[in-house]
Amino acid sequence: MPDSLKIDPAKIRSFIRRQGRATAGQKQALETHWQSYCLPISADFDAEQVFGRSAPLIVEIGFGNGSSLADMAAANPELNYLGIEVHRPGVGHLLMLLAERNISNVRIYHHDAIEILEQKIPDHSISGVHLFFPDPWQKRRHHKRRIVRPSFVELLNQKLRVGGYFHAATDWAHYAKDMLGILSAGQGLQNSSPSRDYCPRPDYRPLTKFENRGLKLGHGVWDLIFRKI
Hints:
CATH class: Alpha Beta
Oligomer: single chain
Strand order of the largest sheet: 3-2-1-4-5-7-6
């Protein structure tokens, strides 16, 4: 682990590093395209220098295999996207997509998102934070591992611009209710839902194959969008 990040050994993490195997294509993408898209954690993040332009910055926490992030970046070339993911095969898959589609407005951190936000991203610099289908940690004894907690709301207030937003989506009703309560109780963020609960899925969030299959089976999906005031 690089010395440039201060690691708190007592901190409760919202993820477990899975040892999934990367495919041959993902391995090749990691070797070939890492330098083009992945950022070192040895230096502070300067969006204008990294992207070579000034544009609104959208951060996605835990982008999984990166398909949704690639779709959003391709559909919104006027925005800068920063994806943060701890699982190496997912990073490799996103690198494949970015290279195949010649997408230039995405950069990646392969690291813990909370540590990157806390220690690398300047305050009041983010226009949007996405958290799509995070691990719900279903068992009660594991709820403390959920990423959306009061300290996370404080971090959002610190990093978001005024008018910037936080968008979470989950297919676990209990986690949706839990996030709604925590975000509503926090200071500085306002619910974008007129009914003060959940929002319809915005057009910018792609509908994944997994999500579409669940909806056809009657499974629910809840979107929460809060803006910094």
